[in-house]
Amino acid sequence: MDRLCPECGSKVVGRRDKIFCSDMCRNYYHNKVRYRKESPIRNINNILMRNRRILESYSLKGLNALSVTALNEDLFNFDYCTSTEMHRFGRRCYYCYDYRYYISPKRIVHFGKTKEIKHQSYQKYSYL
Ligand SMILES: [Zn+2]
Question: 14 CA distance to ligand 1 centroid (A)?
Answer without folding.
Answer: 13
